Amino acid sequence: MSSGYVAGRWREVGRRRRDGHTRGVTTPEPGRGVDERLEAGILDLLEQRAHGATICPSEAARLVGSKDGWRDLMEPARKAAARLVATGDVEVTQGGEVVDPAAARGPIRIRPTARP
What we know:
This protein is α+β, with helices and mostly antiparallel strands. The protein has one domain: Arc Repressor Mutant, subunit A. Helices cover 37% and strands 9% of the residues. It is built from four helices and three strands. It has a three-stranded antiparallel beta sheet, with helices on one face. Helix 1 (3-9) packs across helix 2, helix 2 (34-48) crosses helix 4 and helix 3 (57-64) crosses helix 4 (74-86).
């Protein structure tokens, strides 16, 4: 499954409004857990960005979580990014360098995997 398919399939996860804020999905949806929504949110956010742009895991957490509860999704968002690294869809970086998400400590950024 390509990242384009996943991002397109889950496009309803959330939308960025004109003023830059996102509407998160705050109600449970049958068949779609938080992990799936975080993965889809990461791919959707990256698809909306310029080529080579990165996102912070907090952006996916805010997209999926409630206004006050998104911080609880920070670690699950980092784990979602790690799963997407394992599938080859994204890379995790620190200071512009690709890092192993399991070894990364501190702030990370997520970018699409460079395709040949």
